[in-house]
Specification:
The chain is about 35% helix and about 20% strand. It has one domain: Vaccinia Virus protein VP39 (Rossmann fold, 3-Layer(aba) Sandwich). The protein has 7 helices and 9 strands; from the N terminus they run ααβαβββαβαβαβαββ. The protein has about 210 residues and is an alpha/beta fold. The strands form 2 sheets. A 7-stranded mixed β-sheet has the order 5-2-1-6-7-9-8, with helices on both faces. The two termini are about 30 Å apart. β1, α3 and β2 form a beta-alpha-beta unit.
């Protein structure tokens, strides 16, 4: 079953920083592995990657995607920071809010049954998540050292053996972007229990043994 064109159109039109090749890769991985257990994404933003992942889950037809975000924007998305988007700023609250855009895009794509938003801080939610209960974890939350390693340490135990760990914004060259996700990938690749699968643009992939 191929990615439906209207889902691809909504995903590509959504705000976000995921390349189409990366999105298609996530779709294929979710389609392959989500028969084993649900998938989970850390860092929903406006839903670009969530749509690719949820469509893969729909194509497999068994378990959904949980997409986790506090929806207040990461460090680099706050006013005055490089990735601030005024369209996502709620002046009345004096805060970023990406949840309405996420819900709108899920609805436009017709994926309400397959993309389940959870509004929470990643590490706090992860404290209560069962071990070995997910087939894929996609880390694309905060890109500080503390946030990136915190997400890895919190959520990697939730993967079943054979499950995929995907990490976005892998930049080996510091001039191309922040280094925290790249260091997480390096750390995990050298750790026992993981096999490096490959990289598509800035999307790094490992598999749990």
């Amino acid at each position: 079953m191929r990615l439906r064109e209207h889902v691809r159109s909504v995903a590509l039109g959504a705000k976000g920083f995921l390349a189409e090749a990366e999105g298609l890769c996530l779709y294929r991985l979710a389609k392959e592995i989500s028969g084993l257990a649900p998938c989970l994404e850390i860092g929903s933003y406006c839903g670009k990657s969530a749509l690719f992942l949820a469509e893969g889950c729909r194509a497999r037809g068994r378990y959904p995607l949980f997409t986790v975000d506090h929806h207040e924007g990461s460090e680099e998305q706050q006013p005055g920071e490089p990735y601030f988007d005024p369209d996502l700023y709620d002046a009345a609250q004096g805060a970023m809010t990406t949840l309405p855009a996420l819900l709108r895009n899920i609805r436009l794509a017709g994926l309400q049954d397959w993309a389940i938003p959870i509004v929470a801080a990643s590490e706090r939610l992860g404290r209560y998540w069962p071990a070995e209960s997910l087939s894929l974890v996609f880390i694309d939350g905060g890109h500080s050292e503390a946030a990136a390693f915190g997400d890895y340490e919190t959520w990697s135990p939730a993967l079943k053996p054979g499950g995929y760990l995907c990490i976005h914004d892998i930049h080996p060259n510091p001039e191309d972007g922040g280094q925290a996700p790249y260091r997480v990938l390096e750390h995990a690749s050298a750790a026992p229990g993981w096999d490096y699968v490959g990289t598509v643009e800035t999307l790094g992939m490992l598999r749990r043994r």
